[in-house]
Amino acid sequence: MEIKPIAHIRTDFPEKFGVPRQSGLAGSLKGMIVFEKEYRNPEALRGLEGFSHLWLIWEFSANRATGGQWRATVRPPRLGGNAHMGVFATRSPFRPNPLGLSCVKLESIELESPHGPVIHVTGADLMDNTPIYDIKPYIKYADSHPDALCGYVEGLQEERLRVILPAGLSEKIGDESKISSLVEILQLDPRPSYHNDSDREYGLSFSGYNIRFRVNGNTLEVIGIS
Amino acid sequence: MEIKPIAHIRTDFPEKFGVPRQSGLAGSLKGMIVFEKEYRNPEALRGLEGFSHLWLIWEFSANRATGGQWRATVRPPRLGGNAHMGVFATRSPFRPNPLGLSCVKLESIELESPHGPVIHVTGADLMDNTPIYDIKPYIKYADSHPDALCGYVEGLQEERLRVILPAGLSEKIGDESKISSLVEILQLDPRPSYHNDSDREYGLSFSGYNIRFRVNGNTLEVIGIS
């Protein structure tokens, strides 16, 4: 089946590195959904304003280079990168059809922006400019299962790093909400787990800034911003 | 983007009429996911057994006849069929990309069936032979939002019909679990809401049976099974 993007999402992540591994993990992260010209019709969003959460079905567009190959197992970063899990038991990008699924929080709908109707969301785990194929309302009675058992994922999301920011960060970035979002992302430990090298310096692109950091044990220290 | 089915689901619904309008509404309904030959690899399911719920991304294959047209608004049957809602504020099949999203309960995984590995699920709102494009584990911390606000959908799922079964039904169908599922489906009122004609007789195909029924007020009476 041929599917085509109805929209693209604008986020602060020009690269994959640093993007949270699931939606909702960094709840303050802002995203803006901009529709393709063909779909810029405010009527298509009528009634959406009453929902607090939305589903996005999107494309793992950063992984196109794999050429559509699929492997039966993948190594989830959160398991240290060594354990193999069946691809359908993971949310890995490397799947037969590179479809992503994310629940985001609906913040507001702007029906008449210069780009047509746009949807402002938070909590998206998507790279800037990711193509969106569908937007659906979150329907609690069908979608929410607070007692669901989550196998090897249980408990994995609990660990957060302590983050040390350099002096003068506020002056440099200015926007306090951006700083909060940055801290949230860093707390999640953006490193691939199989490179647990405490001497190594990492660089992360976020909202036009290049953030350099190091991790030692449970502490992440930002060592430069440009 | 071109996507291709990884599997098909086998359910008791040869036709669209009677299929529950959301996943989980008829929790006893059984489904079996059978992979396409290329994906019949038990390794691809490793670790899935620890999850209680799965996401299915599938195609509204019964609606292909619409020729890919999209309309900005649809009339959700549960609103009586008269109110127009934006297509992205609904889970309607008539959307730009005919992708469906359903959460189902994982009952068991059979790694070596005559059809390769199969997944047994319950609660699916899918027609028999629906193509599946992706299977993902339900991850509670990202997917479950018990406090989500659901706009015009709030409260709509509460009403269930009283169902009167004819004498001799058990003898005819035999399988008690099929009867329970049938009752669940009928309680949900399978009629399109804009045909609230109490004299009309409806026919529903379920698990090889043709069920004829009438609805009067809050009571659905099964008047024949063949």
How would you describe this structure in keywords?
homodimer; 226 residues; mainly beta; Elongation Factor Tu (Ef-tu), domain 3; YaeB-like fold; 2 domains; 6-stranded antiparallel barrel; 4-stranded mixed beta sheet; 3 helices; 12 strands
Helical content of chain A stands at under 10%
Structure annotation, total helices of chain A: 3
Q: Which series of helices and strands of chain A comes N to C?
A: EEEEEEEEHEHHEEE
* Name of the CATH architecture of the largest domain in chain A: Beta Barrel
> Biggest β-sheet of chain A: count, sense, barrel?
6 strands, antiparallel, barrel
Structural class of chain A: mainly beta
Uncertain runs of chain A with pLDDT below 50, 5 residues or more? none
Q: Largest interface: which pair? A: A-B, 68 and 68 residues
Count of the separate structural domains of chain A: 2
Oligomer: homodimer
Largest sheet strand order of chain A: 1-2-7-6-3-8
Residue-averaged pLDDT of chain A:
91
Shape of chain A: globular
The CATH C-level name of the largest domain in chain A is Mainly Beta
Query: What percent strand of chain A?
Result: 25-35%
Rounded to the nearest angstrom, the radius of gyration of chain A is: 18 Å
